[in-house]
Amino acid sequence: MGQLGKTSVALMRMLLQGRAPGQLIIQYTDQCNAHCPQCGMRVSHQFPRKTLETDKTAAMIRSAAQKGIKALSFTGGEPFLHLPQICDLAQVAGQSGIEYIRTGTNGFLFCNSGQADFTDRMEQLADQLAATPLRNIWVSIDSSDVATHEQMRGLPGVIKGLEKALPIFAERGLYLSANLGINRNFYGADKDHDHLDYDFFYAGFDQFYRFVKNLGFTIANVCYPMYNAVTDSDQAVYAATASDRVVNFSRAEKINLFQALSDCIPVHREKIRIFTPRCSIHTLLHQYRGHAELSTPCRGGIDFFFIDSQNGHTYPCGYRGDEDLGDFSALNIHSVENRKECRQCDWECFRDPSELFSPLTGLRQSPLQLLQRWRNDRRFFQLWLEDLRYYRRCHYFNGRELTNVEKTGVCQRIKKRGYDETGQ
Ligand code: SF4
Ligand code: SF4
Fold first, then answer.
1. Is 301 left (phi over 0), alpha (psi -120 to 50) or beta?
2. Which of 83, 299, 333, 369 sits a CA distance of 20 to 30 A from 201?
3. What are 410-421's pLDDT values in tens digits?
4. 163 conformational bin, left if phi > 0, alpha if psi -120 to 50, beta if neither
5. Helix 83-96 and helix 54-66: axis angle, to 10°?
6. Residue nearest to atom 8 of ligand 2 (CA)
7. Is the pLDDT of residue 18 over 90?
């Protein structure tokens, strides 16, 4: 049996045991050089910063692979402040058999694109990243209005640099993802009002997808707002959360936001790979409309875990900081006793895959609930099937290749540089 066959069999076995493929998010550092108002790790926020030790992190990664973790993410802070270490750790993960490895950046390396050595720097960076088994690399985008984005991040010129750099990455078979952290300025700072309606969000998402596609991205994702009752408390361990108004939305605004996002995705997802699953948005809408029973409890602390850079300990997620699960290597992730059902936040890293796997994990875990869901919410299953078919056509968002989905709309700049549309 080939590697693909073995992976599929292992995946099916796991799902039939009621478990979702494991995911580990390692916050390698909380150091950062950006100014984002929505984030507790912005450079102006004074607190003792910590970076994990590389050897200990490598040991955790090997342990994660042995425990069956399938997806590994290096987050920050700004991971690219420690790029050589992140590249080495990605190699450790790949050699240990973890396939889905990702990291991201605020894009600070793309600044100063007017300097004479910019192209050389980008070629070296792309070569360095292409030599790793990193499958996905995201670049954070806060607004489709360039001035607003650069002012929020405190990174002048970053968009111009990205525009120049993306074709260089594409020539090496690296397709970066644009990652929008939804905030009140995402459609431009001058458009924020007391109450944001459906039309605002729809126009904002529509503009965002057009903007990043025109920049040269071929994959896009959105991060749901990182503010809520949990993140506003002292419990949150992951400091990429804040109580700033810029990420604070009322319940009515969230309903408008998620409805507009769901409606906008089909308009764009045949031109750019859009990771956001509509079945997950559908259930978040149920939750905000008062029908939480029609959504799936998060797999945080069951199949998905977070490692904090401050002490290197494991937590159920980035928010439940009062549940220190200790050293990841010593953790029995197959014991799910006393793990609570949680729907306290919208963190897409955990909520989206929890929903995506729910019809399969539910077969073993709660078949009666699954049947009830089938009776009460057929629309969820329709959207789920559509998402699965789409994910398949997108090659599960492999950032090391182009797919038919976006080839027709592939970045004009890539074409101008003589890129062969067959992807070869
Ligand atoms: S959102 Fe990211 S780039 Fe911005 S301050 Fe936080 S860690 Fe840094
Ligand atoms: S919903 Fe998931 S990510 Fe959010 S607080 Fe609960 S376990 Fe954590």
1. left
2. 299
3. 544 454 444 433
4. alpha
5. 20
6. 317
7. no
Evaluate: CB of 299 within 6 angstroms of ligand 2.
no
- Residue pair 406/269 in contact by the 8 Å Cβ criterion: no
Residues ≥6 apart with Cβ < 8 Å to 399? 102, 134, 135, 136, 137, 174, 175, 176, 177, 219
Q: Indicate the DSSP class of residue 395.
A: G
Question: Looking at residue 193, what is its pLDDT?
Answer: 87
User: Is residue 217 within 8 Å of 176, Cβ to Cβ?
Assistant: yes
Q: What's the confidence (pLDDT) of residue 239?
A: 64
Ligand 2 pocket test, candidate residues 27, 287, 317, 340, most atoms within 8 A of CB: 317
CA of 345 relative to ligand 2 center, distance in Å? 5
Q: Could you tell me which CATH class the domain 18-416 is placed in?
A: alpha beta
DSSP summary character for residue 100? E
CA distance 164 to 422: 22
Q: How many residues does the chain have?
A: 424
336 pLDDT higher than 70: no
The amino acid at 247: V
Whole-number Å distance, alpha carbon 156 to ligand 1 midpoint, is 15
Average pLDDT value for the chain: 90
Share of the chain above pLDDT 70, in %: 89
Query: Are 185 and 152 in contact, with CB atoms under 8 Å apart?
Result: yes
197-218: pLDDT as tens digits: 999 999 999 999 999 999 999 9
Which ligand has an atom closest to residue 155 CA? 1
The ligand 1 atom nearest the CA atom of 153: 4
Phi, psi for residue 101 in degrees, rounded to 5: -120, 130
What would the pLDDT profile of 254-280 be if each residue is shown by its tens digit?
A: 999 999 999 999 999 999 999 999 999
Q: How far is CA 403 from CA 220, 265, 270, 367, 395, in A?
A: 14, 18, 11, 36, 7
Residue nearest (by alpha carbon) to ligand 1 atom 1: 39
Among 228, 230, 308, 322, the mutation site with the greatest number of ligand 2 atoms within 8 A of its Cβ is 230
Task: Classify residue 38 as exposed, middle or buried by CB count within 10 Å of its CB (0-12, 13-18, 19+).
Answer: buried
